[in-house]
Design a protein that fits this description.
The structure is a homodimer of 367-residue chains. With 367 residues, chain A is α/β, with parallel strands linked by helices. Chain A is built from 10 helices and 20 strands. In chain A, the strands form 4 sheets. In chain A, strands 3, 7, 8, 9, 10, 19 and 20 form a 7-stranded mixed sheet that branches. In chain A, strands 13-12-11-14-16-18 form a 6-stranded parallel sheet, with helices on both faces. Chains A, B: It comes from Paracoccus liaowanqingii.
Chain lengths: 367, 367
């Protein structure tokens, strides 16, 4: 059996050089509980890009044989100390076909599985069977490639809402694959959702999916539209994938303006309505700016799927996984604008394209 | 009995004019449960200044007979909508002597009481007896003037720490009256406390009080000193009265640097140690800037004494009140650099002095 692997690795050296290369290795035979999977599809998520390129200056991208190099700005190096010199595999999730199986897993030979656990940008992945979802017969690798990060994040938003006592959600930017899943979930479950998008085309796209409240941050009426949508839904919880800039601040201020409508008198400390903003991504790694016109009853925090899954009760998490499998070709379908190979992933012009991070323009790696 | 009152009022008009004046009124006789108190001392806290002057441009201060006027910048008016045209009394807390009492409160006649509830910048205050603490015989009005806001806030920080599972606290700026109380409480209770101050004089002052960790943000070694003090105490909770700027962000980044020391490998999402920053004041009303080098396990939020007292269990709150009374001349003693009358409080040069908000330079109103 051929167990020769090629694995995409990212390394940052002490002098600020980023290097991406394909590392050859021969994998061992799968042991008990393990599967050897031929990776057939793996999405390029923003979280993957963060690990691949870190804070590299993308203008410095250069080819070096089959490898790719870039410079890390000096100011960004302190935050990189913990990974200096480590050759890190990349790729949070993917799907593929089981080509070898541990002695207790032979029944899975030939089955297609969805996988979570890193190192998916590779020809092969040796993985614990428990970190896989076995896909229904006939499911394609593309259908199974992105069944963890986005679907569980979207469901995680809703479960966080329930656990923390909110009744509706504001999401920005909402036209992403994740945002589209959230629209479908909230529509099915009757949950109020305010979608913030960045263009009229995205407004039309989400309305097509059945979204009720879609506000366009590129218009002059954005603040008014946002405030009215928050008033209509009663949203006091937001999820922001941008991180840098003022989006969360803008949302909290709009929530406070809505809360102030039902206050009977002036209170210098603002409303007592708790406004919670979560930052779950860093599309903009710049500073988050909070213009605190929203009183003292507010919280902003980081939201990470892995932490949320640990906080939620296990029965809820199992219910989330089953729902993802049951609705993989509907609610949780992802869309890709291009398919690239491992080798193409290291070509500067391809990198420039998939780094654009523009909403909905997601790439699929097909090793 | 003379029940003629003079009460300091703050009003903002729709066209952006702030007006502070002394409002005469004749108060009614105290009813059941009520006391009529001659106000003898009331501190000028930053929270009082917020209500008195709002976001007024202090360069526009002008005298108008016995009143004082100033301009509110246009950009700040939207946040003032809820108070337009309302004549608001000022002064969160104070102390004085009971000169009349409701039929069921005659036993308190002549006693000195500490009061919470607003409208303390006045000659007289008609107040519910339950909103007072009866001071021990011989206690001065100055000793009793500030027994609510700062003492309960300092104790509230410690109870919040316990309730949320942290083991030590970072406080900035720490040389205030409140900060001094916190130093004494933490020393007595054996709680780790990192004090951030702004000058060598303040370092010396807090060390004199028995503080172990005092770091000076005006020095070049501030970041290193802060990080080492956080490492020494294990603090993962901070209270920041500045609000604007980067103080909370700086503290959270230092906490993350300490957490990273015990991480075994690189994690692109940062440490899983929850870092909580509370903003409890707005000495700087400008935007809070968060440079998110602290991973995804963090929260920043508003902290308000009144909300905290509602969240804590009643037995804890009663214990806090009893401790304040028992330690009023030691742990909870406040210091003032000047005493002014109601009329002086409306003179532009006096206003400029007490608005300086410089740490430790607190004024006492003695109507």
């Amino acid at each position: 059996m051929d167990r020769e692997n090629l694995e995409l690795r990212s390394t940052i050296s002490a002098d600020g050089a980023l290097r991406l290369h394909l590392e050859p290795a021969v994998l061992p035979e799968p042991g008990p509980g393990q599967l050897l999977v031929r990776v057939e599809a793996a999405p390029i998520n923003p979280s993957d890009l963060g690990l691949m390129f870190g804070p590299a200056d993308m203008k410095s991208l250069a080819q070096d044989g089959q490898a790719l190099t870039a410079r890390i700005p000096d100011g960004a190096m302190p935050a990189m100390q913990a990974r200096i010199g480590q050759s890190l595999p990349v790729g949070n999730e993917g799907a593929g076909t089981v080509i070898e199986a541990g002695p207790d897993q032979k029944h899975l030979l030939g089955r297609r599985v969805a996988m979570l656990g890193g190192a998916m940008y590779a020809r092969l992945r040796l993985i614990e069977a428990k970190d896989c979802l076995v896909l229904p017969e006939g499911a394609s690798a593309e259908e199974g490639a992105a069944l963890f990060v986005n679907p569980l994040t979207a469901l995680g938003f809703v479960e966080t809402m329930r656990a923390e006592g909110h009744k509706a959600i504001v999401h920005a930017p909402a036209a992403s694959n994740l945002g589209q899943m959230l629209v479908r979930i909230c529509k099915a479950d009757g949950i109020g959702l305010v979608n913030i998008v960045r263009s009229p085309e995205q407004v039309a796209m989400l309305r097509e999916l059945g979204a009720t409240h879609v506000v366009d941050s590129s218009t002059d009426s954005f603040l008014d539209d946002l405030t009215e949508a928050i008033a209509a839904t009663g949203a006091t919880l937001s999820f922001d994938a941008i991180g840098g800039g003022e989006m969360t601040s803008t949302i909290l201020n709009a929530m406070e303006a809505v809360a102030a409508r039902s206050m009977t008198g002036y209170d210098r400390y603002g409303s007592s309505v708790l406004k919670q903003g979560y930052i779950y991504g860093s599309l903009d790694t710049g500073p988050s700016v909070l213009r605190r016109g929203f009183g003292f009853s507010w919280r902003v925090g980081g939201w990470l799927l892995f932490h949320a899954l640990q906080r939620l009760d296990p029965a809820t998490v199992e219910r989330m996984r089953q729902r993802v499998l049951a609705e993989m070709t509907t609610t949780f379908a992802s869309h890709y604008i291009a398919r690239i190979t491992l080798e193409q992933a290291l070509q500067p012009e391809t990198v420039a394209a998939y780094m654009r991070k523009s909403t909905g323009a997601k790439y699929l790696l097909t090793p």
